[in-house]
Amino acid sequence: MSSIWNNRISVSIFGEAQGPAIGVTIDNLPPGEYIDADELVRFMARRNSAISGEISQRRRNAVPHIMSGIYNDRTTGAPLCAFIHNEETSAPQHSGIDRLARQGHADYTGAVRYRGFNDVRDSGHFSERLTIPLCFAGAICGQILERRGIYTGAHIARIHNIKDNPFDPVNVSRDAVLSVRRKNFPVINDRKGWLMTEDINKAGEAGESLGGVIECVSVNVPAGIGSPVFDGLENNIAQLIFGIPGVMGIEFGAGFLSSKMVGSQSDDDFYVNEHGHVLTRTNNHGGILGGISTGMPIMLNVAFKPSPPASNQQENTAAHVPCSVPRLVPCVEAAVNIALLSHMLDYPNFC
């Protein structure tokens, strides 16, 4: 299976939802980096703190066991391997799975691709549970980046038809990123978050499900990070983002709205500020031009489809999740962190 991402940093995710454990191996991290274990736990706990429809004891106890790569709280330069025990491995099987693929799941495509030998229990390797090791890898990379002043944060931009306030694409600050990251329900406008919560609860009561959009931003990324054509910064971000189940699309900066603009509206004017930094007055390009960072905030939106509604679930499946978007916010941040660090390793004097 294509569960290895290799671009300066190598991230290999392993395990299945109902197997003994899931985990990740991260290679080529810079040695000597201090890793705060408490901060790791806080980052990963955010995946469970928002409304998600179900939080089992297994997910509450999803604390990684680090097997190698960290000694005395410092990266050693060896591959960093961590795994999470699956404490609930006796969940009922999907009835009739051999005869009927569940709607909205990868049961059918997985069976065709792997000739029927793939583990179908709780979606196996296709499960959203595999975002836990992704979060762990992104949390490690995030700590290394933040020590250099680079911060990534995300919020729920939309659930169904309810929209949150957006980040300021030009003047978003580190404090704005951190403030939304500290919230149990990650929105900028708390009133909109309350309306989203109501909408999610109503959908759950009706056996329905909702999708949404997550907006993510990275601040203080220096200009000159990335490469053109196939190794662009947005290329790598998108590749990692699409490793999150349920992603249906990604846009950078003004994204698809750019297609409705004329050139004079879309192009961002460069100028030199009072500190001698080259900036743009607007940020329709989302902080990346030609696959290379411009020094402006890196802005992206990620669209998620609704999880399958209860009416489409077969008997004895896992609990219905009316909306997965809230708990996927740190997963988006994690994917961006991994891509950024992989490119930052080429930056002069980074390590």
Give the CATH topology: Chorismate synthase, AroC fold
Q: What is the strand content?
A: 15-25%
Per CATH, which architecture? 4-Layer Sandwich
* Number of alpha- plus pi-helical segments: 9
Rounded Rg: 20 Å
Biggest sheet details: 5 strands, antiparallel
List the helices and strands in order. EEEHHEEEEHHEEHHEHEHEEEEEH
Per DSSP E runs of 2 or more residues, the count of β-strands stands at 16
Q: What structural category arises from helix and sheet content?
A: alpha+beta
What's the CATH first level? Alpha Beta
Strand order of the largest sheet: 1-2-3-7-4
- The quaternary structure here is single chain
If you average the pLDDT, what whole number results? 87
CATH homology-level superfamily: Chorismate synthase AroC
Shape: globular
Helix content: 25-40%
Distance between the termini: 32 Å
Q: Which runs of at least 5 residues are low in confidence (pLDDT < 50)?
A: 52-60
